[in-house]
């Protein structure tokens, strides 16, 4: 419902501003195969104008978000001389991957209201309702989530990484790391002027396992018993094979 | 060469895995151990999720124990009857172990449990083995032979006695069942075969002759870790075939090389080296628990 309202607002705003974003992606499918070691997605496009260039600084903000899911963040404390997990905070929904690239620092490219409305920055993209009741300092847990995922390249803030030429052409590249989960990666491009969103474009990048990876994963989840027995059969065959081969070499 | 593991959902270097498999294989061949207690922490270290590491390591142990038990069967150094009793205890233990593992995972304490188990068991076994082999070296230097001890203890007073011909024993089935169950619990929780605790228990507690101990423990380990693998695969979906195959290839080759090195060394020297290795792993894990970690927060997907 809220999304619909936003879209309606956007559409209402369009004719007055008369600036629209046209965009493309270097690929909309990412195939995870055995040799997958990350992927680089090029996102590019142009600003279409039917009126002369208006006043104010133009910015482009690009976000790529992986599928969301609940995450439990735990904190260790020293108990009886050793470090053990003591407190935990469950975060309702956090994207498994999130990158936000912009032409300027985000605070400059996007006003706080617009950030709140479109959930662009990382803290806004994480839905952490009801965490305050779980720990006195729940914000530290959310910070830890962002810090840990940023360290392994799952959360990326890329200010100034979108190149904008002549207020018309823009491009950026987002590096998807190797430890990617499957799903639809929602990709959004916002065109802002003076911090206000004047147009948005949305598409999705599909990340799927293919070939042997897909087969193994499906078998493990849909036929776990068969998969377990297959693992044992392979293990026993390898053990027997090694023993037989070694006897052959010796004898 | 990077390779993407389908279940662990991480990309790792295939040669690194082969090398790790090989290195642990050499050690396991040298010392006649499964190597699970070395491999599982190594897998944690390179970023494999702990649940996947424990489950996959169980599959790998099946392979290496099967390879080993074939050699012992040919030499007739497996007490199948004793192995079966140990196995029955082990299967029950593995079931209990998986239940404990899943319960503690929900409480977020599984890392602590696994590490504490490692520190306690490796510490005790390592220290005992170190002292024992020091004594043996001193004894062999002074030229005396080791005294043969097989005194009657409380073990012999228990009911339900059974004859184990291969081991030349007539004892109650309760101690082997208990030893088997304990090892089963450890196998499920720690992702190890449990040979490092079963072998000393068989020698010192059950009084089994040393020549049948290794073969019999391997026999039990195959069934118990196979059962643990199946339980992990069906309840947690955490067995990674790609990872298992790579570790296997390195492991079986390494084990054969290690066995050759082992033959060339004296038993006491081997035991003292092994005890030092066990104590080193124990010390590293103990430090992790005692020192303040660089990151006191940790993440896990899902609501628990």
From TrEMBL, chain A:
Phylogenetic classification of the source organism: Bacteria, Pseudomonadati, Pseudomonadota, Alphaproteobacteria, Rhodobacterales
Transmembrane segments: 225-249
Signal peptide span: 1-18
Originating species: Rhodovulum steppense
Name of this protein: Uncharacterized protein (TIGR02186 family)
Pfam families: Alph_Pro_TM
Matches recorded under InterPro entries: CHP02186-rel_TM
Keywords: Membrane, Signal, Transmembrane, Transmembrane helix
UniProtKB/TrEMBL annotation, chain B:
Subcellular location: Cell membrane; Membrane
Listed Pfam families: TauE
Superkingdom assignment: Bacteria
Membrane-crossing residue ranges in chain numbering: 12-38, 44-71, 83-101, 113-134, 179-205, 212-231, 237-258
GO cellular component, one term: plasma membrane
Mode of membrane association: Multi-pass membrane protein
UniProt keyword list: Cell membrane, Membrane, Transmembrane, Transmembrane helix
Record InterPro entries: TM_pro_TauE-like (IPR002781), TSUP/Inactive_protease-like (IPR051598)
Family of the protein in this entry: Belongs to the 4-toluene sulfonate uptake permease (TSUP) (TC 2.A.102) family.
Protein name in the entry: Probable membrane transporter protein
Organism of this sequence: Rhodovulum steppense
